[in-house]
Amino acid sequence: MKCFFCDIQKQEDNNRIIDNQHFFARYDDFPINDGHCEIIPKDHIVSFFDLNQEQFISFFDLIKTVKEIIDNKFKPDGYNIGINEGRAAGRTQDHLHVHLIPRYIGDVEDPKYGIRNIIPNKADYIPEMKKIPSRQDYL
């Protein structure tokens, strides 16, 4: 079976940013914001949960380095970090890839709830929090 992320490693890739022993980072081919990139294992690993400890540390080190590169080049105001873990979560390539998406003030009208907005009408938990007295201090 063909795998885009396995194949792209064997080609010249102008979107490549940096790599380490286990992972490489590249700018997304269809970015949703300036600096949107992916961190991808060099080995064919499907699930984030299949990473061993060495690979996880390698991933963590690379994503921090890539964030510094993106900070210097694009000066974002924040980030979303996302993994589509499984087809039900929207994964289209069966090879782990972690999206690092820079966010900018004003890129959406109201960014409140961030990743929770993934399922429409499920993000606003404030009405439920208002029903719990011990949570009202956090509103």
Task: Report on the architecture of this protein.
This protein has 139 residues and is an alpha+beta fold. The chain is 23% helix and 18% strand. The chain has three helices and five strands. It has a five-stranded antiparallel beta sheet with strand order 1-2-3-5-4, with helices on one face. The mean pLDDT is 90.
- Average pLDDT figure: 90
What's the CATH class label? Answer: Alpha Beta
Q: Report strand %.
A: 15-25%
Q: Please state the structural category.
A: alpha+beta
Distance between the termini: 49 Å
Radius of gyration: 17 Å
Quick structural summary:
With 139 residues, the protein is an alpha+beta fold.
Keywords:
HIT family, subunit A; 5 strands; 18% strand; alpha+beta; five-stranded antiparallel beta sheet; 139 residues; single chain; 23% helix
Task: Give the helices and strands, then pairings.
Layout: H1 4-8, E1 16-19, E2 23-27, E3 37-41, H2 53-74, E4 78-82, E5 98-103, H3 126-130
Antiparallel strand pairs: 1-2, 2-3, 3-5, 4-5
